[in-house]
Amino acid sequence: MGILPKIISSIAPTKLKGPAKRLLQRLFHSGLVKISGGQENALLWVNAQSGLSTYTLIQGFLQGTFPMPQVDNNKIFIWYDPEPRGIIPIADFKIRNDLLRCLKKDKLQDLEKRFEIKLDTNFEQTIINCAKPRGTKNTTWISPEYIKVILELHKMGMAHSIETYQNGVLVGGVLGVALNGYFITLSLFRTVDNASKVAFCYLLAKLKEDKFKLHISGAADSWFTQFGAINVTKKEFREQLIPAITTPVAFTSSLPKLVI
Q1: This prediction's pTM
Q2: More confident residue, 113 or 182
Q3: Which of 63, 71, 78, 236 maximizes the CB count within 10 A of its CB?
């Protein structure tokens, strides 16, 4: 039991009548808001106390937030709602020159070196590869608990992967969650140069083809800039989020055909 529940249980009877209960709730709520630095931060803290499940994850995504496990204790999740938000406008997505050159070069490769793109063929291995530490790091934010929940969402048909293969070997991929017209990119990986870049290009082309309304990625000053990522305010993001999650859009089983 945490410190706050211990304090509450020590000063509050287990059975309170309506008025007394509401008074105590208001007092603790007021204190939590003040300590947290505002109503929204208090709500994010409360959400983090309920643990991670398919229900809490989808609930958070629908509110525009996302969870990140603490690296030093990956069973504790912190919910984030940053300002600004990084999005890639789907309707405006075009394959840019450097990526176009990469795709054309790949098309000229020998068959055993050429990339092959597949959809939801090996989702589990894709997220396992995404969870591996990179470079000199020996930790990762994708915890076993997080993997378990995302795998459950995949079985429900809500989480998807675009995978890159080379000579039959999985060498890159991107995965995310589709909620009606809203798509959340969660992570990417590569073991061969450009493998994740090509997979992500196919994902964006697919989201455009399937008529998704909103796609969230990393910030616009990151790797995603090459795909047209821009930063928008939290207010602008939320204004786009509501119509996206209420528009009936399906993540289809077909891969787009890129014109290169």
Answers
A1: 0.83
A2: 182
A3: 63
What percentage of the chain has pLDDT greater than the value 90? 50
Contact by Cβ (8 Å): 190, 143: no
Pairwise CA distance, residues 49 & 51, whole Å: 6
Domain check: are 34 and 97 in the same one?
no
Question: 184 is written with which tokens?
Answer: 């959340």
Domain ranges, residue 186: 85-245
Please give the distance of CA 135 from its chain centroid, rounded to a whole number. Answer: 22
Enter the tokens of residue 69.
């496990």
SS3 content of the chain, % helix, strand, coil (to 5): 45, 20, 35
Residues 23 and 141 in one domain: no
| Amino acid, single-letter form, for residue 224 | F
Query: Parallel, antiparallel, or unpaired: how do β-strands 85-87 and 230-232 relate?
Result: antiparallel
